[in-house]
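[Structure tokenization] protein backbone as discrete codes

[Encoding] learned vocabulary of local backbone shapes

[Begin record] amino acids and matching fold tokens:

___
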Amino acid sequence: MVMRALPLAMGAVTRDVRMMYRRTKRNAYLTAFAGLCFSTAYVTGIAAVWAVLAPVWGPAPAAAMIAGVMAGIGCVVLAVLSFLKYRERRRNSRRRAAQRLTAAAAVSILPRLTKSRGLLVVAALGGLAFLASQSGDQD
């Protein structure tokens, strides 16, 4: 029974992997094309802004103004990114503290579980599962 189901399962897995590969490849190409279009639009927009500002203030001040505005926007984006990273670090430290508290509670209850052999086995398996789930969580 298992030997007959194995080729069917392998065929389904292979089909899924093949479709996932094709989908990923298609999405990568379309994303790259969209990025090219957005980059072209961005450069064209900057050139249009420069063309409007150059007759009013001259070419060099117009370019300096555009560079200053873009540098300011870049600094704001970096500040937002820094804040988001700080918030994520704080969340992770709270999550780790909660996990340590959970582990301490589990260890404190362990002596009560050792009275029953079946509960001891279940507790040991649960502890191993917890440790296994924590091993892949580090950056």
